[in-house]
């Protein structure tokens, strides 16, 4: 970054008005007394490449990428981290001084760090993981769980083909369970993750039977509106340790903030409150 220039960053998506990232990064900039701005950028898919090539010329040091641009941004970038390639999508871009674009994906990082912060005793090798859903979020979470050392991962999705495709890609530690039998795969699972949109405000509830949940399981949800989904409420009543989904959003932002603004930020209760406000 050239001296005296104020670093700019933002989140590129469409729509993007609902994104909590501006509050999140804005809170950190303020807390650490750093110069910089972080803004939402609503960009149409056809304009994505032109915008990404132009932003560095206007003082941007990087951006987050959200729906629907995550796959396209990965392709546009000049270089990709291994984890972004494995996940098949980018959520964080770094604009280098030579004008080149490095793509990263920190969603799996955010997922694992949230899990470790919310359930400090969580052990990846404690037993099988059960993952509900096989969409974009599931890809990052599966990659992160396998990378953390989970040795058996059971996967179930309403559209079975998508789960089978992930098994073909991520390998034999995965097994696929029919959606109708998803409740059965919770038996003996040490880690249970909902990666579907079910349970989110305005969406249907997750109706997978939870009776087989083990009280020693750590149960987490990527849905954070509401914070306490029915899955987490039920699991909590059954004695499970539960971790809500807000922390994944907060933790995924850490590597981007550090590379753009030069300070590794902390995820704590004050940040949660600022983002929920
Ligand atoms: P994301 O990138 O957020 O994961 P996505 O790729 O659209 O979004 O995936 C959404 C996930 O929620 C998928 O696993 C989807 O199941 P399908 O692959 O069968 O579509 C799941 N999902 C959404 N609505 C659902 C519903 N009513 N019942 C079951 N699963 C649902």
Summarize the structure.
By secondary structure, the chain is α/β, with parallel strands linked by helices.
Fraction in beta strands:
15-25%
The largest pleated sheet is described as: 6 strands, mixed
Major β-sheet strand ordering: 2-1-3-5-6-4
Q: Globular, elongated, flat, extended or rod-shaped: what is the shape? A: globular
Q: Which hetero compounds are present in the coordinates? A: 2'-monophosphoadenosine-5'-diphosphate
N/C terminus separation: 32 Å
Structural class: alpha/beta
Q: How confident is the prediction overall: mean pLDDT?
A: 97
- Write the element-wise H/E pattern from the N-terminal end onward: EHEHEHEHEEHEHEHEEEHEHHH
Rounded Rg: 19 Å
Q: How would you characterize the overall build of this protein?
A:
It contains 11 helices and 12 strands. The two termini are about 30 Å apart. Helix content is about 35%, strand content about 20%. By secondary structure, it is α/β, with parallel strands linked by helices. Helix 5 crosses helix 6 (about 135-150) and helix 5 (about 105-120) packs across helix 9 (about 245-250). About 45% of the residues are buried. The strands form 2 sheets. A 6-stranded mixed β-sheet has the order 2-1-3-5-6-4, sandwiched between helices. It has a 6-stranded parallel β-sheet with strand order 9-8-7-10-11-12, sandwiched between helices. The radius of gyration is 19 Å and the shape is globular. The structure holds 2'-monophosphoadenosine-5'-diphosphate (ATR). 2'-monophosphoadenosine-5'-diphosphate binds near residues 158 and 198. 2'-monophosphoadenosine-5'-diphosphate binds near residues 157, 159 and 204.
């Amino acid at each position: 970054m050239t001296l005296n220039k104020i670093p700019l960053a933002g989140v590129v998506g469409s729509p993007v008005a609902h994104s909590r990232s501006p509050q999140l990064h804005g809170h950190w900039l303020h807390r650490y007394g750093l110069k910089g701005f972080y803004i939402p950028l609503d960009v149409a898919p056809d304009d994505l490449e032109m915008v990404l090539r132009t932003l560095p010329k206007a003082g941007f040091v990087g951006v987050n990428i959200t729906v629907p641009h995550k796959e396209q941004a990965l392709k546009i970038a000049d270089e990709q981290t291994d984890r972004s390639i494995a996940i098949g999508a980018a959520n964080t871009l770094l604009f280098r001084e030579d004008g080149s674009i490095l793509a990263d994906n920190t969603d799996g990082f955010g997922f694992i760090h949230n899990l470790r912060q919310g359930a400090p005793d969580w052990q990846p090798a404690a037993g099988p993981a059960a993952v509900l859903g096989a969409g974009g979020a599931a890809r990052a979470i599966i990659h992160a769980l396998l990378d953390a050392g989970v040795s058996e991962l059971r996967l179930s999705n309403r559209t079975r083909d998508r789960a089978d495709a992930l098994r073909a890609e991520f390998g034999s530690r995965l097994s696929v369970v029919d959606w109708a039998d998803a409740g059965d795969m919770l038996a003996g699972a040490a880690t249970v993750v909902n990666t579907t949109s079910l349970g989110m405000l305005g969406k249907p509830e997750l109706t997978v039977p939870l009776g087989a949940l083990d009280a020693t399981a750590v149960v987490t949800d990527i849905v954070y509106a509401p914070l306490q989904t029915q899955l987490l409420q039920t699991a909590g009543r059954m004695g499970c340790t539960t971790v809500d989904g807000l922390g994944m959003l907060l933790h995924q932002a850490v590597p981007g903030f550090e590379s753009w603004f030069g300070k590794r930020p902390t995820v704590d209760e004050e940040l949660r409150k600022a983002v929920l406000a």
